[in-house]
Write a structure and sequence with these properties.
This is LuxR C-terminal-related transcriptional regulator. One of its GO terms (molecular function) is DNA binding. This protein is α+β, with helices and mostly antiparallel strands. The protein has 13 helices and eleven strands.
Protein backbone atom coordinates (compact mmCIF):
# COMPACT_ATOMS: atom_id res chain seq x y z
CA UNK A 1 0.00 0.00 0.00
CA UNK A 2 2.81 2.39 0.86
CA UNK A 3 4.59 1.72 -2.38
CA UNK A 4 1.36 2.05 -4.39
CA UNK A 5 0.59 5.40 -2.79
CA UNK A 6 4.08 6.71 -3.41
CA UNK A 7 3.82 5.72 -7.07
CA UNK A 8 0.50 7.49 -7.63
CA UNK A 9 1.27 10.47 -5.43
CA UNK A 10 4.96 11.41 -5.96
CA UNK A 11 4.96 14.54 -3.86
CA UNK A 12 5.68 15.89 -0.41
CA UNK A 13 3.54 17.70 2.15
CA UNK A 14 4.52 21.05 0.61
CA UNK A 15 2.82 20.26 -2.72
CA UNK A 16 -0.20 18.02 -2.17
CA UNK A 17 -2.11 16.53 -5.07
CA UNK A 18 -5.56 17.99 -5.72
CA UNK A 19 -7.37 15.04 -4.11
CA UNK A 20 -5.13 15.13 -1.05
CA UNK A 21 -5.62 18.87 -0.71
CA UNK A 22 -9.41 18.47 -0.68
CA UNK A 23 -9.43 15.72 1.95
CA UNK A 24 -6.85 17.39 4.23
CA UNK A 25 -8.67 20.75 3.99
CA UNK A 26 -11.94 19.04 4.93
CA UNK A 27 -10.26 17.35 7.90
CA UNK A 28 -8.82 20.65 9.17
CA UNK A 29 -12.21 22.38 8.85
CA UNK A 30 -14.26 19.61 10.50
CA UNK A 31 -11.68 18.23 12.93
CA UNK A 32 -11.77 14.70 11.44
CA UNK A 33 -12.87 12.71 8.37
CA UNK A 34 -14.06 9.12 7.87
CA UNK A 35 -11.24 6.71 7.08
CA UNK A 36 -12.92 5.77 3.79
CA UNK A 37 -12.50 9.37 2.55
CA UNK A 38 -8.72 8.95 2.68
CA UNK A 39 -8.57 5.62 0.82
CA UNK A 40 -8.06 7.28 -2.61
CA UNK A 41 -5.26 9.46 -1.15
CA UNK A 42 -2.88 7.21 0.86
CA UNK A 43 -0.32 10.03 0.63
CA UNK A 44 -2.05 11.79 3.54
CA UNK A 45 -1.31 8.89 5.88
CA UNK A 46 2.16 8.29 4.45
CA UNK A 47 3.06 11.96 5.02
CA UNK A 48 1.52 11.87 8.53
CA UNK A 49 -0.97 14.61 7.62
CA UNK A 50 -3.78 12.36 8.86
CA UNK A 51 -3.65 9.77 11.63
CA UNK A 52 -6.19 7.49 13.34
CA UNK A 53 -8.51 8.95 15.94
CA UNK A 54 -7.68 7.01 19.13
CA UNK A 55 -11.35 7.23 20.22
CA UNK A 56 -12.73 5.79 16.96
CA UNK A 57 -10.43 4.01 14.52
CA UNK A 58 -12.94 4.48 11.69
CA UNK A 59 -12.08 8.19 11.68
CA UNK A 60 -8.89 10.11 10.91
CA UNK A 61 -7.82 13.39 12.53
CA UNK A 62 -5.49 15.95 10.92
CA UNK A 63 -2.02 16.93 12.05
CA UNK A 64 -2.15 20.67 12.80
CA UNK A 65 -0.98 22.94 9.94
CA UNK A 66 1.42 24.63 12.38
CA UNK A 67 3.17 21.33 13.09
CA UNK A 68 3.28 20.44 9.40
CA UNK A 69 4.97 23.78 8.67
CA UNK A 70 7.46 23.27 11.51
CA UNK A 71 8.30 19.80 10.21
CA UNK A 72 8.77 21.05 6.64
CA UNK A 73 11.00 23.96 7.66
CA UNK A 74 13.13 21.72 9.85
CA UNK A 75 13.59 19.28 6.99
CA UNK A 76 14.47 22.06 4.56
CA UNK A 77 16.94 23.57 7.02
CA UNK A 78 18.66 20.19 7.41
CA UNK A 79 18.82 19.79 3.62
CA UNK A 80 20.21 23.29 3.13
CA UNK A 81 22.78 22.83 5.91
CA UNK A 82 23.98 19.64 4.28
CA UNK A 83 24.05 21.43 0.94
CA UNK A 84 26.18 24.23 2.34
CA UNK A 85 28.70 21.71 3.65
CA UNK A 86 28.81 20.02 0.24
CA UNK A 87 29.32 23.36 -1.54
CA UNK A 88 32.14 24.23 0.88
CA UNK A 89 33.84 20.90 0.23
CA UNK A 90 33.43 21.34 -3.52
CA UNK A 91 34.97 24.82 -3.39
CA UNK A 92 37.94 23.59 -1.35
CA UNK A 93 38.53 20.68 -3.75
CA UNK A 94 38.22 22.90 -6.81
CA UNK A 95 40.68 25.44 -5.42
CA UNK A 96 43.14 22.62 -4.67
CA UNK A 97 42.98 21.21 -8.18
CA UNK A 98 43.04 24.69 -9.71
CA UNK A 99 46.26 25.37 -7.78
CA UNK A 100 47.84 22.24 -9.23
CA UNK A 101 47.19 23.51 -12.73
CA UNK A 102 47.85 27.18 -12.06
CA UNK A 103 50.44 27.47 -14.83
CA UNK A 104 48.24 25.87 -17.46
CA UNK A 105 46.41 28.18 -19.84
CA UNK A 106 42.61 27.73 -19.83
CA UNK A 107 41.14 25.85 -22.80
CA UNK A 108 39.95 27.92 -25.74
CA UNK A 109 36.30 28.94 -25.48
CA UNK A 110 36.01 28.85 -21.67
CA UNK A 111 34.21 31.80 -20.09
CA UNK A 112 36.34 33.25 -17.32
CA UNK A 113 36.95 31.78 -13.89
CA UNK A 114 34.36 29.43 -12.40
CA UNK A 115 35.23 30.41 -8.80
CA UNK A 116 36.91 33.68 -7.93
CA UNK A 117 37.89 34.88 -4.45
CA UNK A 118 37.10 38.56 -3.87
CA UNK A 119 39.28 39.96 -1.09
CA UNK A 120 38.09 43.27 0.35
CA UNK A 121 34.85 45.23 0.24
CA UNK A 122 35.97 47.34 -2.72
CA UNK A 123 36.52 44.28 -4.94
CA UNK A 124 33.22 42.77 -3.79
CA UNK A 125 31.30 45.93 -4.61
CA UNK A 126 33.00 46.29 -7.98
CA UNK A 127 32.16 42.70 -8.95
CA UNK A 128 28.53 43.12 -7.89
CA UNK A 129 28.25 46.39 -9.81
CA UNK A 130 29.56 44.59 -12.89
CA UNK A 131 27.03 41.77 -12.45
CA UNK A 132 24.25 44.35 -12.00
CA UNK A 133 25.14 46.10 -15.25
CA UNK A 134 24.74 42.94 -17.35
CA UNK A 135 21.73 41.50 -15.46
CA UNK A 136 18.59 41.40 -17.62
CA UNK A 137 16.05 39.05 -16.01
CA UNK A 138 16.11 38.42 -12.25
CA UNK A 139 18.03 38.81 -9.00
CA UNK A 140 17.52 36.41 -6.10
CA UNK A 141 18.86 37.30 -2.65
CA UNK A 142 18.94 35.75 0.82
CA UNK A 143 19.50 38.33 3.56
CA UNK A 144 20.10 36.86 7.05
CA UNK A 145 20.73 38.80 10.23
CA UNK A 146 17.34 40.16 11.24
CA UNK A 147 16.52 43.84 10.91
CA UNK A 148 18.45 45.41 8.02
CA UNK A 149 20.41 48.51 8.95
CA UNK A 150 19.84 51.71 6.99
CA UNK A 151 23.49 51.68 5.88
CA UNK A 152 23.13 48.19 4.38
CA UNK A 153 20.00 49.15 2.49
CA UNK A 154 21.50 52.41 1.23
CA UNK A 155 24.70 50.69 0.06
CA UNK A 156 22.86 48.54 -2.48
CA UNK A 157 20.12 51.03 -3.38
CA UNK A 158 21.85 52.28 -6.55
CA UNK A 159 22.05 48.73 -7.89
CA UNK A 160 18.41 48.02 -7.05
CA UNK A 161 17.22 51.21 -8.75
CA UNK A 162 19.28 50.41 -11.85
CA UNK A 163 17.76 46.93 -12.01
CA UNK A 164 14.24 48.28 -11.54
CA UNK A 165 14.82 50.73 -14.38
CA UNK A 166 15.55 47.82 -16.73
CA UNK A 167 12.52 45.79 -15.62
CA UNK A 168 14.53 43.17 -13.74
CA UNK A 169 12.49 41.10 -11.28
CA UNK A 170 13.91 40.88 -7.74
CA UNK A 171 12.97 38.40 -5.01
CA UNK A 172 14.37 38.73 -1.47
CA UNK A 173 14.28 36.29 1.46
CA UNK A 174 14.61 37.60 5.02
CA UNK A 175 14.07 36.27 8.53
CA UNK A 176 10.73 37.06 10.19
CA UNK A 177 12.53 39.58 12.42
CA UNK A 178 13.20 41.81 9.41
CA UNK A 179 9.46 42.61 9.30
CA UNK A 180 10.01 45.00 12.21
CA UNK A 181 12.58 47.18 10.39
CA UNK A 182 11.13 50.44 9.10
CA UNK A 183 14.09 50.86 6.77
CA UNK A 184 13.18 47.67 4.90
CA UNK A 185 9.54 48.72 4.61
CA UNK A 186 10.62 52.09 3.20
CA UNK A 187 12.95 50.37 0.73
CA UNK A 188 10.22 48.02 -0.51
CA UNK A 189 7.76 50.90 -0.86
CA UNK A 190 10.34 52.77 -2.96
CA UNK A 191 10.98 49.76 -5.20
CA UNK A 192 7.28 49.01 -5.74
CA UNK A 193 6.38 45.94 -7.81
CA UNK A 194 10.00 45.39 -8.83
CA UNK A 195 10.75 43.60 -5.53
CA UNK A 196 8.89 40.75 -3.86
CA UNK A 197 9.90 39.83 -0.30
CA UNK A 198 9.15 36.80 1.87
CA UNK A 199 10.31 35.73 5.33
CA UNK A 200 11.19 32.55 7.24
CA UNK A 201 12.14 31.71 10.81
CA UNK A 202 15.66 30.94 9.57
CA UNK A 203 17.50 31.45 6.30
CA UNK A 204 20.88 30.34 4.99
CA UNK A 205 23.89 32.66 4.84
CA UNK A 206 23.87 35.61 2.45
CA UNK A 207 23.35 34.79 -1.22
CA UNK A 208 22.97 37.05 -4.27
CA UNK A 209 22.22 35.39 -7.60
CA UNK A 210 22.09 37.27 -10.92
CA UNK A 211 20.26 35.77 -13.92
CA UNK A 212 21.09 32.23 -12.73
CA UNK A 213 24.60 32.76 -14.15
CA UNK A 214 26.68 34.30 -11.33
CA UNK A 215 26.29 34.02 -7.56
CA UNK A 216 28.00 35.72 -4.63
CA UNK A 217 28.37 34.11 -1.19
CA UNK A 218 30.48 35.09 1.88
CA UNK A 219 33.93 33.55 2.18
CA UNK A 220 34.54 34.51 5.84
CA UNK A 221 32.52 35.34 8.92
CA UNK A 222 32.88 39.14 8.77
CA UNK A 223 32.02 39.21 5.03
CA UNK A 224 35.17 41.06 4.00
CA UNK A 225 35.81 38.25 1.51
CA UNK A 226 33.38 36.69 -0.95
CA UNK A 227 33.25 33.98 -3.58
CA UNK A 228 32.06 34.82 -7.08
CA UNK A 229 30.65 31.60 -8.53
CA UNK A 230 30.12 31.10 -12.25
CA UNK A 231 30.26 27.32 -12.43
CA UNK A 232 26.88 26.34 -13.98
CA UNK A 233 26.35 23.36 -11.65
CA UNK A 234 27.06 25.37 -8.50
CA UNK A 235 24.91 28.31 -9.61
CA UNK A 236 22.03 26.00 -10.58
CA UNK A 237 22.30 24.25 -7.22
CA UNK A 238 22.09 27.54 -5.30
CA UNK A 239 19.11 28.54 -7.41
CA UNK A 240 17.35 25.33 -6.41
CA UNK A 241 18.09 25.98 -2.73
CA UNK A 242 16.59 29.46 -3.07
CA UNK A 243 13.43 28.19 -4.79
CA UNK A 244 12.80 25.59 -2.08
CA UNK A 245 13.12 28.19 0.65
CA UNK A 246 10.98 30.65 -1.32
CA UNK A 247 8.16 28.12 -1.64
CA UNK A 248 8.03 27.68 2.14
CA UNK A 249 8.44 31.36 3.03
CA UNK A 250 5.60 33.72 3.99
CA UNK A 251 4.97 36.88 1.91
CA UNK A 252 5.93 40.03 3.77
CA UNK A 253 2.42 41.36 3.17
CA UNK A 254 0.84 38.35 4.92
CA UNK A 255 0.67 37.91 8.73
CA UNK A 256 2.66 35.20 10.45
CA UNK A 257 0.60 32.11 11.31
CA UNK A 258 -0.90 31.97 14.78
CA UNK A 259 0.58 29.36 17.10
CA UNK A 260 -2.83 28.33 18.40
CA UNK A 261 -1.51 28.56 21.97
CA UNK A 262 -2.54 31.56 24.05
CA UNK A 263 0.37 33.67 25.24
CA UNK A 264 2.97 32.18 22.86
CA UNK A 265 4.02 34.10 19.76
CA UNK A 266 5.29 32.65 16.49
CA UNK A 267 8.86 33.67 17.40
CA UNK A 268 8.61 32.02 20.82
CA UNK A 269 7.35 28.85 19.15
CA UNK A 270 10.46 28.87 16.96
CA UNK A 271 12.68 29.45 19.99
CA UNK A 272 10.96 26.60 21.82
CA UNK A 273 11.70 24.21 18.94
CA UNK A 274 15.38 25.22 18.93
CA UNK A 275 15.59 24.86 22.72
CA UNK A 276 14.13 21.37 22.37
CA UNK A 277 16.96 20.55 19.96
CA UNK A 278 19.46 21.53 22.66
CA UNK A 279 20.79 24.80 21.20
CA UNK A 280 22.35 27.50 23.39
CA UNK A 281 20.99 31.05 23.59
CA UNK A 282 23.67 32.53 21.33
CA UNK A 283 23.04 29.94 18.60
CA UNK A 284 19.29 30.51 18.77
CA UNK A 285 19.79 34.27 18.49
CA UNK A 286 22.06 33.92 15.45
CA UNK A 287 19.76 31.54 13.62
CA UNK A 288 16.67 33.72 14.15
CA UNK A 289 18.45 37.02 13.49
CA UNK A 290 17.88 38.53 16.94
CA UNK A 291 20.15 39.62 19.77
CA UNK A 292 21.05 37.26 22.61
CA UNK A 293 19.27 39.64 25.02
CA UNK A 294 16.07 39.44 22.96
CA UNK A 295 16.31 35.66 22.75
CA UNK A 296 16.66 35.42 26.52
CA UNK A 297 13.71 37.74 27.04
CA UNK A 298 11.55 35.45 24.90
CA UNK A 299 12.85 32.39 26.76
CA UNK A 300 11.89 34.06 30.05
CA UNK A 301 8.36 34.70 28.73
CA UNK A 302 8.15 31.09 27.57
CA UNK A 303 9.12 29.92 31.04
CA UNK A 304 6.51 32.17 32.63
CA UNK A 305 3.74 31.16 30.23
CA UNK A 306 4.50 27.45 30.55
CA UNK A 307 5.07 27.62 34.31
CA UNK A 308 8.67 26.39 34.22
CA UNK A 309 11.01 27.22 37.10
CA UNK A 310 14.21 25.97 35.40
CA UNK A 311 15.62 25.23 31.95
CA UNK A 312 15.19 21.52 32.54
CA UNK A 313 11.56 21.98 33.48
CA UNK A 314 11.09 24.31 30.49
CA UNK A 315 12.20 21.51 28.19
CA UNK A 316 9.58 19.23 29.71
CA UNK A 317 6.88 21.89 29.39
CA UNK A 318 7.83 22.54 25.76
CA UNK A 319 7.35 18.84 24.98
CA UNK A 320 4.05 18.73 26.90
CA UNK A 321 2.75 21.71 24.94
CA UNK A 322 3.77 20.14 21.62
CA UNK A 323 6.16 23.02 20.85
CA UNK A 324 9.02 20.65 20.04
CA UNK A 325 7.17 19.37 16.96
CA UNK A 326 7.20 15.78 18.20
CA UNK A 327 3.47 15.38 18.82
CA UNK A 328 0.68 15.03 16.31
CA UNK A 329 -1.58 17.41 18.20
CA UNK A 330 -0.74 20.59 20.02
CA UNK A 331 -1.79 20.41 23.63
CA UNK A 332 -2.71 23.36 25.76
CA UNK A 333 0.25 24.83 27.64
CA UNK A 334 0.63 24.07 31.30
CA UNK A 335 0.13 27.33 33.20
CA UNK A 336 1.36 27.61 36.75
CA UNK A 337 -1.54 28.37 39.13
CA UNK A 338 -1.80 32.00 40.10
CA UNK A 339 0.11 33.29 37.05
CA UNK A 340 -1.67 34.83 34.06
CA UNK A 341 -0.74 34.29 30.48
CA UNK A 342 1.00 37.28 28.93
CA UNK A 343 -0.55 38.79 25.84
CA UNK A 344 0.50 37.14 22.61
CA UNK A 345 3.24 39.10 20.91
Amino acid sequence: MAGHGAEEHPHGADRLCAAGDRVYSRAVRRGRVPRRDAEPVPCLLELALLHPDPDDMDWLVPTSPQEVMTRLLRGVYDEVSASQRRVGSAVEAFEWYAGLGGRTAPPAGTEGTAIRVLDGLARIQAAMDEATQVCTTEVLTVQPGGIRREAELSEGLHRALALRGRGVRMRDLYTHVARHGQGLLNYLELMGDAVEARTLDEVVDRLILFDRTVAFIPANSDRTMALELRHPALVAYLGTVFERLWRLAIPLTAPLPDTGIEGISHREQSIAALLAEGHQDAVIAERLGISVRTARAHIARLSETLGAASRTQLGVRIAQAGLDGSRHTVASPVIRPGRGSPTAR
